[in-house]
Specification:
Distance between the termini: 115 Å
Largest sheet: 8 strands, mixed
Number of strands: 17
Order of helices and strands: HHEEHHEEEEHHEEHEEEEEHEEEEHHHHH
Radius of gyration: 34 Å
Number of helices: 13
């Protein structure tokens, strides 16, 4: 018997899940994008223990029929694409048909869904990728997915998860990233019944951006051509961070973390920001879907452009145009002026406090400060040896003084 054998489907599904589902944030990302593709205008995320114990995503999208709901648990089952050509004209965030089966294979999953024209919906219970129960249930139009005990059947992977607080921070970043490019969708995030985020629907992208990046002044830029549009809002060189956590990039409204795009952004700033610092803001790249490949990695965070050099130069031109107009100088100048005012104000306060240290109970403070500079306290001979009070030492060394030998010295009579 040979050594090479075909792996069972249960093992293959767990291996595949490792490419898509790395942590609770991965689950949230995939399910949120499914809700967006389902045309939901409200998405609620509920977590317990940072998502390590329980994740629930509820949306008011178009929902699924019983047959579609069951089919969605099968690997590579999707309604997003039909053939190879569709990969190069994608208008949806999901397309692989791997998210739900991958999540199901490493958790206990409960899915409830209903379409608008159905009287009742369907509930599906699965454990480790195996369907355990299917039943009809009364529910609202849309989809609700509960993910319990993530990685319960892969304990090695469970050990690699961080603390609940760290996992929650990862989920928050995903929610912010998804919310930025979809301002007309309401996003709610709860952890242990505590409301963490509540991004309400708004037609104004600036309002959504300010709710995510609230500690920096961002400057708008726009550069368009017949092939590519680059728009966004970025901070000036004086408002940077030590990480790229607040730098969001999108290609055709798809959130990406592409190293090539990030490098183009950093090259645009050049020496305006010091090494190890990164700008804040949002950049949207709109390009013909045929000129970009999003089928690079299972997480769909990376992309590949058909004409990469041209795209890179266009991105740099867009950002440099904003930097060359120097809109951030105004804010920087105002900050510098405020700093100088504060400095001089502090100097005056320090002087007042130093003078108040010379106190005499028999003399009023104002009088003492006035007398501090009088001849009685600071005689003229301490500053310049006047002719009428020339000392013996001064007379004997007049020649040396004239040559500057004693310049700056204070002479006293012996």
């Amino acid at each position: 018997m040979g050594k090479i054998r075909i792996l069972p489907d249960t093992l293959v599904s767990k291996i595949s899940a490792g490419e898509v589902v790395e942590r609770p944030a991965s689950v949230v990302k995939e399910l949120i994008e499914n809700s967006i593709d389902a045309k939901a205008d409200k998405i609620s995320i509920y977590l317990r223990y940072g998502g390590k114990r329980h994740i629930k995503i509820v949306d008011n999208g178009i929902g699924m029929t019983r047959d579609d709901a069951l089919m969605s648990l099968e690997r590579h089952a999707t309604s997003k694409i039909k053939d190879v050509d569709d990969l190069f004209s994608l208008s949806t965030l999901g397309f692989r048909g791997e998210a739900i089966p991958s999540i199901s294979s490493v958790s206990r999953l409960n899915k409830v869904t209903k379409t608008e024209d159905q009287e009742n919906g369907v509930e599906i219970l699965s454990e480790g990728g195996i369907v355990k129960k299917v039943r009809e249930i009364a529910c609202k139009t849309g989809t609700s997915i509960d993910v319990n005990n993530l990685f319960f059947n892969t304990p090695v992977r469970l050990k690699f998860l961080k603390t609940p607080k760290t996992e929650l921070m990862r989920v928050m970043e995903i929610v912010q990233r998804e919310a930025l490019c979809k301002p007309k969708i309401t996003f709610e995030l709860f952890d242990d019944e505590k409301n963490i985020h509540n991004f309400k629907s708004t037609p104004d992208i600036k309002e959504r951006i300010s709710s995510v990046i609230s500690n920096a002044e961002l400057y708008e830029f726009e550069h368009k051509s017949s092939e590519i549009n680059v728009t966004g809002y970025l901070s000036g060189p004086s408002e940077t961070r030590t990480s790229m956590q607040k730098l969001y990039t999108y290609v055709n409204k798809r959130p990406v973390r592409d190293r090539f795009i990030n490098r183009m952004i950093m090259d645009s700033y050049g020496n305006l920001i010091e090494k190890g610092k990164y700008p804040q803001g949002v950049i949207f790249i709109e390009i013909n879907p045929e000129d970009v490949d999003v089928n690079v990695h299972p997480t769909k965070f990376e992309v590949k452009f058909k004409n990469q050099y041209h795209i890179g130069e266009f991105i740099k031109e867009s950002i440099r145009a904003m930097l060359n107009s120097a809109p951030w100088i105004k804010g920087y100048k105002q900050s510098a002026e405020n700093a100088l005012k504060n400095f001089y104000a502090n100097q005056k306060e320090d002087k007042a406090q130093s003078f108040s240290g010379f106190s005499d109970p028999n003399v009023k403070s104002t009088e003492y400060k006035k007398d501090f500079y009088t001849k009685e306290i600071m005689p003229a001979t301490a500053f310049s040896p006047a002719e009428s009070v020339k000392s013996e030492v001064f007379e004997k060394n007049e020649e040396l003084i004239s040559t500057g030998y004693y310049s700056g010295c204070l002479l006293y009579t012996s």
